[in-house]
Amino acid sequence: MSRRHIPASRRRINVMTRLTWICHGATAANRQARFPLDEPLETDAMSQAAAIASSLPRADAVFVSPALRARQTAEALGLPATVAPELSDCDYGLWAGRSITELHATNPDALAAWMTEPSAAPHGGESIESLHARLAAWMEHQKGEGGHTIAISHAPVIRAAIMVALQAPLSSFWLADIEPLALVRMTSNGSRWSLRFEAASH
Fold it and tell me: What's the CATH number of domain 12-196, 3.40.50.1110, 3.40.50.1240, 3.30.160.250, 3.20.20.150?
């Protein structure tokens, strides 16, 4: 789904933009605590995603990570989406497909470095620092667009987005737990992002 046209007169500094992040549904990698490959959703995850579709507000634009698990989530939610490479999962390099337990046993120093040093990329892929910079650039572009955008992506990406919104240090990256199909809502007045917490419906 491409973004509807927002007239130039509405793209002022005080335009309100809403951004809803949705983490993709569960995969075998989630259950096995390993770094993912480009794998499909588990069967139950498709029906779980479909079950929340009716509760989502109308979106002016929907973007999705290129990963199969994210695209299947968008399909289960009934959301025609534009693939956005900027929403790709972290590049885990040589660790893709390997479990945390295995790496802790065979290469604990490298694993510890990646989880404590935001600029480290011992797997040869992407550092947390690089992931954060990628999300910051995408969110900078989105914050003045107006309307409501849905972004379907991955837990590390959503963690990075939260760090961007809070202007938090990268050392706090691991303090946010993002479950499959979790929703994180943000708003922007055109100059900065804020997290948005809504009251439960009655």
Answer: 3.40.50.1240
